[in-house]
Design a protein that fits this description.
Number of strands: 6
Order of helices and strands: HEEEEEE
Distance between the termini: 19 Å
Strand order of the largest sheet: 1-5-6
Shape: globular
Helix content: under 10%
Oligomer: single chain
Strand content: 15-25%
Number of domains: 1
Largest sheet: 3 strands, antiparallel
Length: 105
């Protein structure tokens, strides 16, 4: 599996290598996190960090964005723990699933 050394969090980037795994993820309501097909989808690796208040943030479109607390999934679900992963709507960047990566990002 090939994943970028520094995930940019842009829609569709590095979705394909992880599609089979992403489509198994469910949000806090039990709804599938992955919207898309193998070539394009809402889930992808992303840079992440914790802010001073303990909130997760991801780097999207050149800025750090707070992850809604209800979107944070169990880190044990991360099959590629080197990076955090997000599933976010393409037009609005609303994050509905987030999995922290190893060592916080």
């Amino acid at each position: 599996m090939c994943v970028a050394d520094t995930p940019d969090g842009e829609w569709g980037h590095d979705h394909a290598p992880n599609h089979d795994w992403y489509r198994l993820l469910r949000d806090h309501r039990g709804v599938n996190c992955c919207n898309g097909d193998e070539s394009h989808g809402d889930c992808r690796p992303a840079q992440a960090k914790l802010d001073a208040a303990g909130n997760w943030m991801v780097f999207l479109k050149g800025e750090w964005v707070v992850v809604p607390p209800q979107a944070v999934l169990d880190p044990a679900l991360n099959r590629q723990p080197l990076h955090a992963h997000i599933c976010a709507q393409r037009e609005t960047d609303y994050i509905y699933c987030f999995i922290p990566g190893g060592a916080g990002g």
